[in-house]
Amino acid sequence: MLKNIEGGKGSVFYRAHSYHTKVPVEGVIQLIEHYTDPGDVVLDPFCGSGQTGVAALLTGRHAVISDISPGAVHIARGYTGRVNPDHFGQAASGLLEQLEPLEEFLYRTPDGLVEYAVWSDVYQCSTCGREILFWEAAVDHEAGAVNRTLSCPIGHGPFKKTELRWMRSEPVQRNIRVEGQQARLVQPVEGAVKDQLGDRTSVPYWYPTAAWEPWREMWRAQHKVQRIVTSADFFTSRNLHALSALWDAIGQIDDDSIRAGLRFVFTASVNRASRRYQWHPRRPTNVLSSTMYFASLNYEFNVFSLFRRKLATITEMYRRTWEAPGTCEVHLGSAEKLTWAEDGCVDYVFTDPPFGSNIYYSDSSFLWEAWLGEQTDVAAETVVNRRLTPEMGGTTLDDYEKEMSRAMGEINRVLRPGAWASLQFHNSDDAVWSSIQSAIDSAGFRVEAAVVMDKGQASFKGLRHEDKGERVANFDLVMHLAAGSLSISNAQRREADRAEIEVELMDYVARQPPSRCTTPWLHSQVMRHLLAEGASPTGWSFAAVESLCAEILERRDKSWHLPKSSR
Ligand SMILES: C[S@@+](CC[C@H](N)C(=O)[O-])C[C@H]1O[C@@H](n2cnc3c(N)ncnc32)[C@H](O)[C@@H]1O
Known about the structure:
Structural class: alpha/beta
CATH architecture of the largest domain: 3-Layer(aba) Sandwich
Number of domains: 3
Low-confidence stretches: 457-472
CATH class of the largest domain: Alpha Beta
Helix content: 25-40%
Bound molecules: S-adenosylmethionine
Number of strands: 20
Strand content: 15-25%
Mean pLDDT: 88
CATH superfamily of the largest domain: Vaccinia Virus protein VP39
Radius of gyration: 25 Å
Oligomer: single chain
Number of helices: 18
């Protein structure tokens, strides 16, 4: 019997390259070892960063994995490619040595090399027209806070920044690594130094100019105001110069596996090298935000430092995979048509499909794909996309259900008779759960069991429609599917009655520590129960579960507890 699965985030496999909703490889290993023997074939048709492939490599299975996103395929190949770590390390050292004069030119100051600079927006006072530097007007360094309103240098205001005209962004502070010293030097950026940063017309190498267009889900009016119209606009000119030189030098490396490995290090550094990292006095390394928005204060990290750091992690990873016993093939293509897979050739499927409309993978992968020169076919993605017209690929939850049904049908076709599939999923919307349940049914599967995969710590990137605080979950459900449907449609499913859910919740809360008794956990527990029992999730939304909890349980410190009367 499969128990709930723990996954870790500290491993080199987790840290090597970011990806939206990456599954911890330890969790996938547990499942693969449970369901297969060494030498078996494992499939993941929504592979993302390819953790199923990594799990197969490490456990001596053969993985065949695919994704519709060229960015995901690049990352999955980077993770699962066989790269000689010694040759890789030598090639990377040569590359960095060759680019050292450029690093000196771009980041050297009289005191040392810039590790990062902080950039601030500049607004125009709507009363007197004077410039308002956000850094001066809104940051309270002593309190470690950023104020919501700002006044102009002669006291007009206070204004919300949305009431002001955005003029430009400029560097205000730099953090310098002084050779031979631990502590960093923090200096204001003033006068002539600001001008030295130059404009990007002087960048001598190719860089991508993929269009960032208003039809994208993650496009915001801010992009128009700040003239963010191509991928190049996501970088300062200095970082664009450094990145383009690195990309060019990597492209000249002859050995295919080493070149691919170095491109993997490059894309692993790209998001952090962009202007998407918010600076805050209290959180010096704020995580990548869930949008493509630029904060009013953001980082410009030294590209070469970022690259060196990722290089160390990825070289360590290649040491672990170089002689690993398994294999992995990565394909670019839709899960709805696995043209490269014959009927009955797969022994086990582990997959983590898109969760309805929570994450816009193609937008989140935009910068990677810009450098790779190939963008996801948005119209073919299995997500609910309400911003696009149907002609452009816009989709509803019904379309999502049909697409997931086709993908589940393909999974059933390629599985050998009697083999299992595990489907990882998470959503706080009961309608999306119903869609997934229908897709599972229509493809001829039944849910035999459902367990929780605890992913360590909250990691969802690109989440929308979810409250940033509580509802960002750090676990998913994993449904274990066997072929052979009970042939019941959603309309015929029995409805779960309230008393049954009450018993389930009380029983769960009695057994679990408070950290696992927040509403997201309880909602998932209800979904787990309904799916495993073949009952309909309709009506059991996040809000419905929360309101039932409020009636039958007591809430303290964000967790639900048994009421005193029942203890
Ligand atoms: C939840 S993510 C998978 C994450 C992955 N398990 C990992 O650990 O990185 C879902 C993936 O499905 C992909 N996708 C969306 N629509 C697809 C389709 N029609 N066919 C194949 N892949 C698709 C997205 O590009 C995304 O990488």
